[in-house]
Description:
Layout: H1 2-16, H2 23-36, H3 49-52, E1 68-72, E2 87-98, E3 101-107, E4 113-116, E5 119-122, E6 135-136, E7 142-143
Antiparallel strand pairs: 1-2, 1-5, 2-3, 3-4, 6-7
Helix pairs in contact: 1-2
Amino acid sequence: NHGVLLCTMRAIMAFANAPPAVWALAIEYSAILHCHMASDYATDAARVPWLKIGGTVDYDALLPVGCIVLMVQAKAQVEDGKLSQRGEIGIFVGWQFTEGRKAISVLVPSGAVVPSVFYIADPSYFPLRAANARRLLATGVFADEGEVQSRFKNATWLDEYDESK
């Protein structure tokens, strides 16, 4: 299992062009994917553990790590609950539970990982990739959509990370 998880983590990070600082979150999400999409390697039959115990799988929540997310913050998460900007852009890095609710983990430009229950995600846009290859097209290739800068270009946690890889 460790070999499968490590290979999945490397693939996730390479696909998103994620910085090495998020490897622990990527391997945690790899374990979640492995549990949702497990199969019996001796046969071609699917064996999804969640379905065996009567659970349901929320396939819409299986976002690709590294895709862009616009999360809506609660009043308690901002300085001035009435006037502060409530939406914050970030990068999807996994799932978590916060106060008994299923939430996603979002990496924000400051480098913090924050939970979000209310969000909108674009699973075809990856802001950490090179400027000419951020949009994943329906054909399965990355392409340029004419943008000139990344929202994460000045993020403090990217100082030692070369975005052009």
